[in-house]
Amino acid sequence: MTGLFSTLESATALDRPSTAVRDVVRRITAGVPGDLLRGDVAPGHPLHPALVAIPIGAWSCAPLFDFVFRKPETARQLIGVGLVAALPSALTGWADFAECDTQQRRVGLVHAAVNGTGIALMGLSYLGRRRGTRPAAVAASTVATALIGFGGTLGGHLAFAMGARVEGNRNRVPSAGSAFDPVLA
């Protein structure tokens, strides 16, 4: 995976589209809307990492209900919950993307494309399940789950290896208080 990450980080072909997308997102998220979407106002840290837990959790459970518990209606409902939760997750992700540096935007654009494809496949799966085309719908959600997992890996790389939206906190000295232990610091 390290090779893939390095390749994406250095993919200058992604600079023009990622800059264009960043510029559009910055215009849309200027001022208070962007501050809220990025979590700058409250809670004071990025919201995207917390919000993605809902669609990822719902979509990760859906295959269990398809293949193990044999409850396709529950799988469909979980996919629906994930689709509803994907909207605020994506909005906060785009707001964070607009604040990333060039290398982070390269990876971020691929992260968004992979997750967007996964979301679209989940949407098709949901619709297919409502129409009764269960085998194709299950196949779509299975592929989508794999894509979302890969997209999440890229997101983890953005945050943990590249420091996307966490640079300001890297050298932060913890405040004194009950959670601060100078022996461990």
TrEMBL record:
Domain DUF2231: 44-167
Superkingdom of source: Bacteria
This protein's record includes keyword Membrane: yes
Keyword vocabulary terms for this entry: Membrane, Transmembrane, Transmembrane helix
Any Pfam family: DUF2231
Keyword Lyase listed: no
Ranges annotated as spanning the membrane: 47-69, 78-95, 107-127, 139-160
The name this protein goes by in its record: DUF2231 domain-containing protein
Species of provenance: Rhodococcus artemisiae
